[in-house]
Design goal:
ten-stranded mixed sheet, alpha/beta, four-stranded mixed sheet, about 325 residues
Length: about 325
Amino acid sequence: MKEIDVMAIGELLIDFSPAGPSLNKRPTYEQNPGGAPANVVAALGKWGRATSMIARVGEDFFGEDLISTLKEYHVDCSLITKDKEIPTTLAFVNLDDNGNRSFRFYRKPGADLMLHKDNIEETGIKRCKIFHFGSVSLTGEPSREATWHAVERAIENAKIISFDPNVRELLWEEQDEMKEQIIRGLSVADLVKVSEEELRFLTGEDMLEKAMTLLSETYSIPLLIVTLGAEGSSYRLNGKMGFIPGYKVRALDTTGSGDVFWGSVIYQLLGRAKLLELQETDIAQILQTANAVGALTTLKKGAIPSIPALDEIDLFLRQQRKHMEDKT
């Protein structure tokens, strides 16, 4: 059977992105495919990696659109199931003047929460190299049990575990429960991405380096990446730390930029013979490219529709290098 580079589990949903005023000067919204784990595998699929998604959508036109979109991005959708009673989860996106987004979910419940342990096939997990998940599928049952069942099977089969907490406080009834579930994820992960705000929330520490050290040492995380928006990203790799500056662009919509950034990190790791045996020079090069990918993703609206092609990424990096050479 075909080997899978990355398998992800979690939310697959519709993001309704602001699309400007209507003729009646009322807000209008554009239907875009999204969901953090789905954004990651869609990026990897677009870039030629073999990917698969475990998710649940409603048996409705939103669910059909999501599945057809992932197929266009070469993601294996054989483990995406449909719910006849619960509709596909929706999220409305709000953008500020700088393109920074916030969400309001319509999910009480949504089909993504209806993913069941019985929907998990271990044979697929056995065929992947990296297993990726986040915390949104941990916000309630039965998807929480299903997610942990899948993660445990991945660990048993010695897969590399990737975790993005992707904190969405409005989806949790109790903050203590949220922290408990996220901590469990941190405790089993080999690769972790958090935002600066999430790092502060999880550690209670304002100093970046101190917070990174605390998180990575407490949960024995081999590679921790912290995204810093337009400023760039920081890493802690086997006790060594560094910062890689980002790229200044005129952001239109930051939705999904962190997910596609993480997809770029994973894509580059997959190109190495031994994924977790990295030097500081390796991770610096990886993050230079990932920062560029994150920046490019903000130039269009929506998450999956904004994923840049490999040639776009190469062109952007060449232009940036030339710009720096001209300045010197």
